[in-house]
Amino acid sequence: MDSVTENLQIERIIIHEIFKRTISDKPCIPSYSTAMLTMTKEGKQALQQRLVEALGNNSHSIEMEINDIKDEGMPSFTKKIYGLSDSEFIEETKYIADKLAEAQVSMQYPGGIIVIISGIVGINKHPCCAIIKAEVHTGFHKKKVKESISAEYLSDLFLTPQQKLYKIGYFVFSKKGTTVLVYDHNMTRSETKQAAKYFYDSFLGCKIADSSKIVTQNFFLLTREFINELEIENDKKLDYQDDLYSYLKNKNTNTLSISDFAEKHLDLDHRDLYQAYMKTSEFPITAIVKELDLIKNKLKRRKISFSTGVTLQRSKGNLKEVVEVLASSATSTTLKISGKLTDQIT
Amino acid sequence: MTEKEFLDRFHTEISLYENYGKYIKETILHEVSDAGLPDHWFVIEPSYRVKDEKSLLAKAFYRNKNYSDPYNDITDKVGLRFVLLTTDQVTELTELIENISIFNFRKDRDYLREQNQNPTTFIYQSMHYIISLKKEIEYCEYIFKNNIFCEVQIRTLLQHAYSELTHDTIYKPKTIAEPKTHRLVARSMALIETTDAIFSDVSKQVCIVKSKNDIVLNSLKTEYSNRINFEQEDRICNILLDYYDEYIPTFNEVYEFISKKTFIIDRINDRALEKLLYRQPVILILYYLVYKIQNIVLKLWPFTQEELEPIYTDLGFCLPSL
Questions:
Q1: According to DSSP H, which parts of chain A are helical?
Q2: Using the beta-carbon criterion (under 8 Å), do B292 and A276 form an inter-chain contact?
Q3: Do B316 and A53 touch (CB under 8 A)?
Q4: Helical residues (DSSP H) of chain B, grouped into ranges
């Protein structure tokens, strides 16, 4: 599967500013630009790179389903603006800023810059649109004053490589339909997943794919299969399988992805192999929302089986903490198990 | 034939022999270059030499050779020598000489044959050919008949070193050398034979890697100049081919890839003016490798990461964290 950000070429950029609500039931009116943003070649390249880092292959972005099919919903509206003239584009994007201000129902949600980008993507140059909500933060700017170097304090930086400070909705329009990717740091963690909802749901009109449960199950089955087929020591396999259990059972994370698992748990030499393996099985190349319902029982116990019908399982925790594979051949395995033999149930 | 008669005839024919040596040398070198073998093939400049009178007389009359017709029986009145680096090159050159259609040849010495006949001894090693012509040939103002001979010696640099050391002491003994000396010299030849075999292995291994990469690189160069509007450079091509040696794809794989992902050529054209990396034909392979093995590429990348980032971006890939 090729990336939906492959050959991304930015054509038009405009920014507007939105503000934090001061009264809970009324959105603040955004401040609108009246002209398109012009950027140097380097600036464009950097912006393209930010988008790909957040949305591309192996990123933490999530492919979502379209929920709001109305004309004024973001999926349809962004499709419409691609073909507009520059002046119409400037005018119509104000509506996008209004919609975001409207969706920010809580006074806790910060204001920021909304960047609306249209361009083309892929080998076939499909139209695409990206909407970035970027929070403004602070930093310093190096300045040369006469012979010495000084630093200027800046309070209005945005779109630095610090990904936590922006959210992106990204639409690609092809003959097959509209593909939506959403990047929001809040989605990746369980404790903040609710805070992400206003952006992808109320504003972008999207929802988490119904297939998440099945895709999570596939992740587990395919990764397990990959580890089993790897030509490595059994002891190492035990490690990797334990890692897979821990990765899925981690209560703090709300999403999972091939690259995230690879980077956290696999040796560098196995990462490309794993990614290629999952890609061949058509597993999504960005992140997915983790839903464990279908594999709950499988994750309860860590279990290993032998060709002679013997099964070894541990009710809690990783096997590797208590089991060591000392040697293994086609016909026998030598294990060292910590703990005293307590029960021999007949 | 007396010594005087022998020398008188020789004096009248010296320049004939000299030119014959020159002619044989030129003919062989011509074949070498036709076969596409490199200029640096010979580690010592090939040269021909007419035998000096004293050693000629010694050989004809004083070395118990029992020649019936000493003048015509001595076939190395002119000699020519080729010194190469490895035994494989020696074999290659002998095959080349044996296939020259205007030559008649007789193999006077063949160290491989000698090794088979006497597998337990270690002595002088070289290939000696006695070359004559099948048909009479006119060259400058000379006529070479088919009964004029030139001795051609072919050997490795190490075999040559042995020969230089032992020439007057062992191979053509004027005095009988001490058994101790014989033993030392035999030991050195055993070592030379071993080293020559290792040299040959080394050169084979280098050739496999080099020729594999050269084939890919040559095709890449052509492809690059067909598609990119910039003058290409190849300063860092070989460095990168070395770094990613075990992952280098075939040219066809790269060709198929860039033909499918047509935008890659546009991006290279965009950046070639400002960036050295994009003026290297190897950039085509780099895109392919990032697509296939993104983690390994980053791990092995010898330059700064910033150089690599745009390639990942073009392909829609995040830069992996290692």
A1: 41-55, 74-81, 86-103, 193-197, 212-229, 234-249, 258-265, 268-280, 296-300
A2: yes
A3: no
A4: 3-34, 53-61, 70-73, 87-98, 111-117, 157-166, 179-227, 237-243, 251-260, 263-271, 283-292, 294-300, 305-315
Angle, helix B283-292 to helix B263-271, in steps of 10 degrees: 130
d(CA B23, CA B148): 12
Say if B313 is an interface residue toward chain A (CB within 8 Å): yes
Which residue from A230, A300, A307 is spatially nearest to A272, judged by alpha carbons? A230
Q: Which of residues 210-269 of B touch A (CB under 8 A)?
A: 260-263, 267
Question: Using the beta-carbon criterion (under 8 Å), do A56 and B318 form an inter-chain contact?
Answer: yes
Q: Which of A48, A52, A268 minimises the CB distance to B318? A: A52
In sequence order, what are the residues at sequence separation of 6 or more whose Cβ sits closer than 8 angstroms to the Cβ of residue A296?
A: none
Three-state DSSP at A292 gives coil
- Whether residue B316 and residue A48 make contact (CB cut-off 8 A), yes or no, is no
Identify all chain B residues contacting A47, using CB atoms and an 8 Å cutoff.
none
Contact yes or no for B60/B67 (Cβ under 8 A): yes
pTM of the full predicted structure?
A: 0.70
Task: Decide if B60 contacts B6 (C-beta within 8 A).
Answer: yes
Task: State the amino acid at position A175 in one-letter form.
Answer: K
d(CA B164, CA B315) in angstroms, rounded, equals: 62
For B184, residues 6+ apart whose C-beta sits below 8 A from its C-beta are none
Return contacts of B54-59, CB within 8 angstroms, 24+ apart: B56/B6, B56/B10, B57/B3, B57/B6, B57/B7
Chain A residues near residue B278 by CB distance under 8 angstroms: none
User: Cβ–Cβ of A58/B292 closer than 8 Å?
Assistant: no
Distance (Å, rounded) from C-alpha B259 to C-alpha A197?
Answer: 42
Q: Does B294 touch chain A (CB under 8 A)?
A: yes
Write out the two tokens for A21: 């609500």
Q: Which residues from A are below 8 Å from B when comparing CB atoms? A: 2-8, 45, 48-49, 52-53, 56-59, 123, 259, 262-263, 268-269, 271-272, 275-276
DSSP annotation string for B58-111: HHHHSSS---SSHHHH---SEEEEEEESSHHHHHHHHHHHHT-TTEEEEEEEEH
- B244, B247, B263: best to mutate for the A interface, most A CBs within 10 A: B263
Contacts of B269 in chain A (CB under 8 A): none
One-character DSSP codes across A4-70: TTTT-EEEEEEEEEE---SBTTBPPPPBPPSSPPP--HHHHHHHHHHHHHHHSBTSS-EEEEE---S
ipTM of the shown complex: 0.86
Written as one string, the DSSP assignment of B126-142 is -EEEEEEESS-EEETTE
Q: Would you give per-residue pLDDT tens digits along chain B (322 residues)?
A: 788 888 899 999 999 999 999 999 999 999 998 887 876 789 999 999 999 888 888 888 877 677 788 888 889 999 999 999 999 999 999 999 999 999 999 999 999 999 999 999 999 999 999 999 999 999 988 999 999 999 999 999 999 999 998 876 555 555 556 888 889 999 999 999 999 999 999 988 877 777 777 888 888 899 999 998 888 887 888 889 889 988 999 999 999 999 999 999 999 999 999 999 999 999 999 999 999 999 999 999 999 999 999 999 999 999 998 8
Q: Answer whether A272 sits within 8 Å of B310, measured CB to CB.
A: no
Among chain A residues, CA nearest to B294 = A272
